[in-house]
Amino acid sequence: MIAEPTVTSRSSVQNENLAVDTNPPGAVRHTVGGARNENREKSVRGKRRAREGSENAKRRHTKTTNGGLGRAQNSYPKRGDVEAVTLFEVVTMGRSAMQAVVDDWIEAYIADRDSALLDLVSFFIQCSGCKGLVTAEMFQSRKGDVMSKMVEELDECSGLQYKKFLAFPWILTVTWPMDMDSGEYPLTMTGPYWRRFRSEFCEFVSVLVTQCQYSVIFDSYLMDTVISLLTELSDSGVRAFRHTCTLAAMKLLSSLIGVAVSLTVSIENSQRLGEVERAKTSGRRNSTRLERIQRKVTELQDKRVEIENMMDAIFKGVFLKRYRDVLPDIRSVCMEELAIWMKLYSPVFLTDSYLKYMGWMMHDKLPDVRLKCVLGLQGLYGDPVLLPKLDLFNSRFKDRLISMTLDKDHEVAVQTLRLLTLISQSTDDVLTAEDYKQLFQLVYSSHRPLAVTAGELLYTRLICCPAETTDLGEGTSEHHIHTQLTADRVRALLHFYQDSGLHQHMVYLVDSLWDSASAMLKDWPSLTSLLLQDASTQGLCAGEQSLVIEVLVASVRQAVEGPLLAGRSTCKRIVIAREKKTQLDDCGRLTEHFLKFLPQLLTEYSGSPESAASLLKIPQYFHPDSSSAGSQQALAGLLSEMGAVVDLHTDPAVLEAAARSYLSLCGEETAWHSLARPARDTVVQCWVDRLAKLMGDALQDGNFTADEDRTGQMLSTLKKLTAFHNAQDLSGWGLYEQVSPLLSGNIQHGGLPAEVTVEALQCVSFSVLWNLNTSGENLTTREKAVAQRSKLRTLCEKCLHCLSHDNQRVKEQAFLSLCDVLTAHNYQVHVWEPSSYGPLLYTPDPKLTKALLAFILEHVFTGPECSSHSRGSNVESSEGRLEELHRRRNLLAAYCKLIVHGVLEMSMAAEVFMYYMKYYNDFGDIIKETLSRTRQMDKIESARTLVLCLQQLFLRLKQEQDSGVACSLGVQTFSSIKELARRFSLTFGWDQTKSRESLALIHRDGIEFVFQGLVQKAERPSSPHLSYLTILSEFSSKLLRPDKKTVHSYLQRYVNEQTISNREECWLPLIQYRASLLATGTEGEDAASFVSSDSPKQPSLGDMKAPAVICSETKGRRSNRASSTSTSTSTSKEEKMPGVEPGTVFRETLPTKLISEEQYNTNEELDVDTVEVDL
Fold first, then answer.
1. Which of 122, 315, 706, 983 gives 698 a disulfide partner, CB atoms 3.0 to 4.6 angstroms apart?
2. What is the Cα–Cα distance from 713 to 693, expressed in whole angstroms?
3. How far apart are the C-alpha atoms of 636 and 630, rounded to whole Å?
4. 995-1050 confidence digits (pLDDT tens)
5. Nearest residue to 559 via CA among 513, 604, 590
6. Where are the beta strands (DSSP E) in 179-264?
7. Which intervals hold domain SCD (predicted)?
8. Which positions ≥6 away from 394 have C-beta within 8 Å?
C-alpha cells in the first residue's frame, strides 16, 4: 500500500516502477506508483525478450516531460516544492483545483482520448493504493481468447500479483506487490491527510460527470471504458480494488442520476414549449420551430435512455454483486447510495424491486449497515410525494422495523424509532394500537436518547392531542383555556402511566418527555391550580392526585439538576451558557412560585404520607439567592407548615425529605438562613424535651416500664430524632447521653421493645459518627479524645450484645452500626494530623471480630445456592426474595468494608472467599471487588488469604470424607474447590510479571501443605493431602517459564525420581501437578485422566480413582491454558523467580521483591464483567 505523501516520500515514489511481462504489439505501459507516464505517447517498438514468470522490481529515474495531460498538468497547483503531476495528487490537494483539473482533462481527452483515458484508469488504480504498473493492449482477439486471459494470479517467487481484465476497448493488466492485501489503502488509512481523501475522491467523480454531461459523456467510449474498469475491479479478490472501485461506481451512478434528472427537466420544459406552440392558431403556429422542439425532445429522450442504460449496467454489474460483500464498508456504501437513488430518481428506483434490497439489508449483522438502511428510509418517508410508493414496503417490513427499536446498537434503535415517528406522522394506517403500545414503553429505556425519542412519539401521538378534552364555553379567558389544556394533557399522561403498569418511576417518564414536553411539565402554575381545585371540579381521584404531585416534583428536579438519573445512560455533553441561563431562570421561577403555593399544597395533602413526602422535597431545589419582596414572610409560612407536617407523620420517607429540606434551607449560603435555622432548632428541641419526659417516666431503676401508649410516643419521637440526626449534626442536644440509658437498661434487665431498640441503636450510632466526623474541630484536649473513644467502645459493646438478640431487625441494625462506626473510626485515624488532638486508636477485640464473622456466615450465606451454572434457570423472582437478597448484599458489603479498610485482618476474608462460586450470582461482584481491593493493599497477604481459603475447604472435605458421612450443605465438593481455584487464578490477569510473588507464595505454601504430613507406610511413602496438588495445578498456567522450573525444583526436594515414576492411582495428582509445571504432552495426557467428579459417593482425597471417560471440555480447557501459558512465557526466558535463583528451593521466608511494585489493575482480570461495589 502507500504511505501518506510528503515532499520527500512523494519524490521517491515517483522514481519507482515495476517491470512487466512481454507486451504484445500495440500495448501501452502506464505506471501508477505516483510517477508520470512518460511513455503514454509512445508505442512499444519491436519485441522484448521474453522472460519466465514475473520480473523483479526495477528502479529507474522518470524523465519529466510535457506530454500526457498537456495543459492540465502544467496548470496543477503546487504543494510545497513538488509539482502535482498526477490526477491522484491533484485530488488529494483539495477541491479548489478540482474543476480546473477536470476541465483540462476533458480538453486532453478531446485531443487524445486514449492517453487521457489511461490517465483516468491510472487514477482509479492509484486511489486503490496500488504501487504498480498498468499495461493496456487493444482488444483485437476473439472472444474465447479474451475470456481465457481474464485472470487474477499470484506469483510467490517474484512477490507480484497480476490482474488482467477487459475494459473496452482495451485489455488491461495491473501488476502490484503482494503486500497490497495488508489492509492499508487510502480509504482506510488514518490521519488528517487521508480523512479528506474520501470526500475529495467522491467529489472528483461527481465533477467529472457534471463537466462531461454536455459533451464526451455520450461518445460511447468514455463511459463504456470507465464502467468496464470499475465493474471488473469491483469484482477483484483484493479488498483495496473492490472497496475503492465500488465506491467510485456508486458515486458515478449517483452523478449519472443527476444528469438524468437534468435531462428530464429539459424534456418537460421542451414538451411544454411544444404544447404551447401547438395551442396556437394555424396562422400563428411556427411549424419549423415546432419541428425543432420535437427533434430536441427526441434527442433528449435518447440521451436519457442512454444514461439509464449506463445506470442499469452499473447497478447490475456492481451493486448486485457487492451489496452482500463480505466487507461491511462496501455494504454500507451500497445501501447509502441506493437510498439516494430512490430519492433523486424515484420513477426508476423507488419501486418494490429496488426497495427489497433495503428491507433485506436491515437484517445485516453489522450495525453500520442497518443504520445506513434506516437513515436512507428516513429520507424517503420524509417526502410526502414518495409515500404512496412505500405501501408494499410498509406491509412487508413493518415488523422488522418495530423489532429494530430493540437493536443491541443504541444508534440503530434510536434512528429506527425516529423513522417510525416519521411514519406515524405521515400516515395513520401503518402502525396499529398494539404497535404504539410497544413503542411507547421505550420511554422507560435505560438509554436516554432512545427514551427521549420514544417520549417525543408519546407526546405527539397521545399527549399533545388527548382523546378526552373538556368543553369550554364562549367568553372563557385565554389563561383558563391554557390551564384547562394543560390539565387535559396531564390526564392523558396519567392514563398512559396507569395503563402501562410496568414501572413505578415517574421521574424516568418525566425525563423522557422533557425535551419534547418541557413547556407542559414546567407549567407549575397550571399543575398547582389543578391540585388546589375542588374535588368536584378537579376530576381526579386520590391516586391520580398523588401522580400529579409526582409529576410536579419530578419536573422541579429535572429543571434544577438536569437529566442525571441512576441507571440511565446518557452521552457526555458540555452545558452551554444558554442552557445554564435557562436553568437558573427556571430555578428562580420555581422558588418564587412554590414559596407562595407550597404551604397551601402541604395543608391540602398533609394527610397522605406519600404526597407529603414528595412535596417536602421541593424546598431542596430552591434557589439559595432568592430574596424577592415578601419571600421572608412566605418562608415563615412554609416553615410553619413543614413543622406541622413533620409533627404529624412518622413515615421514614416524610422524615427523610423534611430533614434534607431543613438542611438545604439552613445552609450558610442561603438568603433565609437566619429564619430557617431557629425554626429547625425549635422543632428539634421540642422532640428532645418530649423524649426526656417520656424516658423519665418509662425508666425506673433501669427497667423499662412504659405502657403501650407511651412506648408508641417514645418510638415516634426517636424516629424523628434519628431521621434528622442522620442528615444533620444534632450533637448539641446530647442525644448520645440521653438515648444510651435505654440500651444499657435493656442489656441489664431487658424488656425494651425491638422497634425502640432499633431506633435507639441508630440514634446512638449516628451520634458517634458525627463526633468522629467533627473530631478534627472538636477534639481540643486529650480528655475529649479519651471520652470519644470511651463512647465508641461502649457502643461496640452494646452492639455486640445485641448481635445475640432474638429479633432479626435488632441483630442486623447492631451489625450495620458496628461496621459503620468502625469504618469511620479507621478513616479518621488515618487522616488526622499528629500535631493536633484526634481520635485515639480503638482496636476491636477477637471476640467482636469472631462475632462479626459468625453473623455473616449465619445470615448472608444461607438459602438457595445460586451457582454460576444456574444462571439461565428459572429462579424465584418475587418482590420478597429481591428485598431479602438486597438486605443480605448490604450486610456482606458492610463486612467487606471492614476488611478493605484494614479494620479486620485480611485473613478474615478467607471465609467469604469460600463462597465466591457457590453464591456467584448473588454476591460474586462484591466478593470479586473485595479480592481486588485486598490485592491492591498487599499482594502477598492477599495470596496467603487465598491459600488459607482453599486449604480450609480441602481439610473440611477430607475430614467429612474420613468420617464416612455424606457431604453436607456446608462442605463443597472437590470439583467445586477446583473450580474455585481456577476462578482465583483468572483474577491474576494477563500480566504475569505483576503476580510473580503472589503465585510463588501460593505454590510454595501448597507444596509444603501437601508434604508436611508425609509419612513412611509399608514400602512406599504417602501423603493424606496429595490430592491438593490437583487444586494447586490450576495456578500453574499463570507462572512464567523460569518460575515453573524453580517450582519444579522445589517440588523435587520432597519427592524423588522413584516416586515421580510411580504410576499408581494415589500418585496421579502429583503426576498432573508435575506435568502442569513441565508443560509436557505425554505426562499431561496421563495426568489428565485424574479428574474429580461430583458423584453422590465422593472418592477419598488420598486415593482417588480416575473416571473412565474424560470430559472433552476439560481437555480443551486444559490444552488452551497450556498453549496460552507457552505463548505468554516465550518472551520471558531470562526472567527469574522473585527471590529464588534457578536450581534452588523455596525457603520459609517470603520471596524477595525483585520486580517493581506496581498497583494492581482490576481491569486485567479475566473473569466476567461485574458491578462495582463501593467498599
1. 706
2. 11
3. 10
4. 899 999 999 999 999 887 564 444 555 678 888 999 999 999 999 989 999 998 99
5. 590
6. none
7. 319-404
8. 423, 430
